[in-house]
Amino acid sequence: MDLADLTAEMHRFVDSRGWNSEESPKPQTQRNLAISLMLEASEVLELFQWKETSQTVEDLESELADVALYLLQLASISGIDLEQAVMEKLNSNYGREW
Fold it and tell me: Using an 8 Å Cβ cutoff, are 67 and 41 in contact?
C-alpha cells in the first residue's frame, strides 16, 4: 500500500464518520488537523517520558499511526502531494551542511 492508498482509506474513514460535513463537530480544517497532529505527536513523546524506550511496540505503533493519519489528512486537504514534498525535502537536505 502506498501513500495514495493510505490517503484514500483515511478519506473513507473520515467520510464514514461524517467529519467532512458542514455541520460536523470535528471540522477537517487545516488548523484543526495541525492541532490534532501536534497532540498526537505529543502522545508519541509521552511514551518516552522518564524512560529511554516505549513500554510496548504496540503503543508506539498506535500513536505513530495516529500521527501519520493526521499528516495524510492535513496534506490532502492542503493540496500537497506528500510523496513529492518528502522527496523534494530529501533532495534539498542532501545539499545542506549540518
Answer: yes
pLDDT per residue over 48-98, tens digit each? 999 999 889 999 999 999 999 999 999 999 999 999 999 999 999 999 998
Q: What is the pTM of this model?
A: 0.90
How far lies 30's CA from each of 22, 36, 59, 75, 98, in Å? 15, 10, 26, 9, 31
CB-based contact 24:18 (threshold 8 Å)? yes
CATH topology of domain 3-94: Helix Hairpins (1.10.287)
Here the cell at position 75 is 496534506
Sign of CA dihedral 72, 65, 2, 13: negative
Distance CA 71, CA 82 (A): 9
What is the number of residues in the chain?
Answer: 98
Beta-carbon neighbour count of residue 4 at 10 Å? Answer: 13
